[in-house]
């Protein structure tokens, strides 16, 4: 790798917190940060068309390298010239390395070379190495790729985390050396669980490699909110200031606020669309169960001041009916609303940071909603 295909611009830092307002310049467009990235695991954000996602104002989405490797497979990705042509998406796209998915499989074996596992599709043996992960992501053609790291169970012993941090560093160097797609950025991931000394060491190791951006891994994997808070407060603003900072798997209002308050720029999560498909709407007052009987006769939208397509065109009563009849349209309409909520939420955080009012935004939000200060 030589010069970076992306550039991070720091626009403003909130005077009273670690929150920062920035901009990521990419060949496919500008990403305003902080940014929430909708998850398009299989080259689609479930139940939504690309037109819908664009109209929601999403500047970047996430694809899953592991699942795209399994299906449709690299042969088809090559034939189409990459994921942007394949799914007709003209804006930035980030792929994860496949590490989290590989390590979540039960039948796997970790070696120095990589991870050996059986395909969940046909049971065939697959060896995922840092080099293989880079090959997959380069063929997919995402704008931002992630280095291959080891995702460790949060309940593992200290000694295993210690070994894993060293392995993640070696794999990060191999990922960097194997990556040669000059128009694709590559981010490194530091690990270390909930151990301060290991986090410190991993951050030092990973940032010694000139990646285009850096991510904090191993959070939002079932640990307590207080543990996430401790790690973010201690290490969020120790990450390089001149490059994007990414925390993986974050999408609830509570965790987005915690992440931004401690210097994070990017986050992704399936939460808004998954909740939408199951009948739960995110609002500024809290979560709303659209399937509840009280909504059956309601002529109100999900949220009166919401400007999303769903709230401008449909009532709670109609949405309640769609879910009672298991109509896919209901899943689409609630997913539209929830993504609009998250995208608007980060936009308002950006405005608050620019005005040095992030902590005021945080205070007002929790005072006027029933979202927990702790997840």
TrEMBL record:
Catalyzes the base-exchange of a guanine (G) residue with the queuine precursor 7-aminomethyl-7-deazaguanine (PreQ1) at position 34 (anticodon wobble position) in tRNAs with GU(N) anticodons (tRNA-Asp, -Asn, -His and -Tyr). Catalysis occurs through a double-displacement mechanism. The nucleophile active site attacks the C1' of nucleotide 34 to detach the guanine base from the RNA, forming a covalent enzyme-RNA intermediate. The proton acceptor active site deprotonates the incoming PreQ1, allowing a nucleophilic attack on the C1' of the ribose to form the product. Residues 249-255, 273-277 are annotated as: RNA binding. Belongs to the queuine tRNA-ribosyltransferase family. It catalyses: 7-aminomethyl-7-carbaguanine + guanosine(34) in tRNA = 7-aminomethyl-7-carbaguanosine(34) in tRNA + guanine. Pathway: tRNA modification; tRNA-queuosine biosynthesis. InterPro entries: ArchSynthase1/Queuine_TRR (IPR050076), TGT (IPR004803), TGT-like_sf (IPR036511), tRNA_ribo_trans-like (IPR002616). Homodimer. Within each dimer, one monomer is responsible for RNA recognition and catalysis, while the other monomer binds to the replacement base PreQ1. This is Queuine tRNA-ribosyltransferase. PANTHER family: QUEUINE TRNA-RIBOSYLTRANSFERASE. The gene is tgt. GO terms for molecular function: metal ion binding; tRNA-guanosine(34) queuine transglycosylase activity. GO terms for cellular component: cytosol. Residues 17-368 form the tRNA-guanine(15) transglycosylase-like domain. Binds 1 zinc ion per subunit. Keywords: Glycosyltransferase, Metal-binding, Queuosine biosynthesis, Transferase, tRNA processing, Zinc. Substrate binds at residues 96-100, 149, 191, 218. The active site is at residues 96, 268. GO terms for biological process: tRNA queuosine(34) biosynthetic process. Its cofactor is Zn(2+). Its EC number is 2.4.2.29. Zn(2+) binds at residues 306, 308, 311, 337. It comes from Geotoga petraea. Gene3D superfamilies: Queuine tRNA-ribosyltransferase-like.
């Amino acid at each position: 790798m030589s010069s970076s295909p992306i550039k991070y611009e720091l626009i403003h830092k909130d005077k009273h917190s670690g929150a920062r307002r920035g901009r990521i310049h990419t060949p496919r467009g500008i990403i305003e940060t902080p940014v929430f990235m909708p998850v398009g695991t299989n080259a689609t954000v479930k139940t939504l068309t690309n037109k819908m996602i664009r109209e929601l104002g999403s500047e970047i989405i996430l694809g899953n390298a592991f699942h795209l490797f399994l299906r449709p497979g690299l042969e088809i990705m090559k034939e189409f010239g990459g994921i942007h042509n394949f799914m007709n998406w003209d804006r930035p796209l980030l792929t994860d390395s496949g590490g989290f998915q590989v390590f979540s499989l039960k039948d796997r074996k970790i070696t120095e070379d990589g991870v050996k596992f059986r395909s969940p599709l046909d049971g065939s043996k697959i060896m995922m190495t840092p080099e293989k992960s880079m090959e997959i992501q380069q063929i997919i053609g995402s704008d931002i790729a992630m280095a291959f790291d080891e995702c460790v169970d949060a309940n593992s012993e200290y000694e295993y985390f210690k070994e894993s941090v060293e392995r993640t560093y070696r794999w990060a160097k191999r990922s960097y050396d194997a990556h040669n797609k000059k128009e694709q950025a590559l981010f490194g991931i530091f690990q270390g669980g909930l151990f301060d000394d290991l986090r410190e060491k991993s951050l030092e190791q990973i940032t010694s490699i000139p990646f285009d951006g850096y991510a904090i891994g191993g959070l939002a994997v079932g640990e307590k909110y207080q543990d996430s808070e401790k790690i973010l407060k201690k290490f969020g603003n120790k990450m390089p200031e001149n490059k994007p900072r990414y925390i993986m798997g974050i999408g609830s209002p509570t965790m987005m606020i915690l992440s931004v308050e401690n210097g994070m720029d990017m986050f992704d999560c399936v939460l808004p669309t998954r909740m939408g498909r199951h009948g739960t709407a995110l609002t500024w007052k809290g979560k709303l169960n659209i399937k509840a009987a009280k909504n059956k006769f309601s002529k109100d939208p999900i949220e009166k001041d919401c400007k999303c397509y769903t709230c401008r065109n449909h009532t709670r009563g109609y949405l309640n009916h769609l879910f009672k009849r298991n109509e896919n349209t209901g899943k689409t309409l609630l997913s539209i609303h929830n993504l609009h909520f998250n995208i608007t939420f980060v936009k308002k955080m950006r405005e608050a940071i620019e005005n040095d009012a992030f902590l005021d935004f945080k205070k007002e939000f929790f005072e006027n909603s029933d979202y927990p200060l702790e997840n």
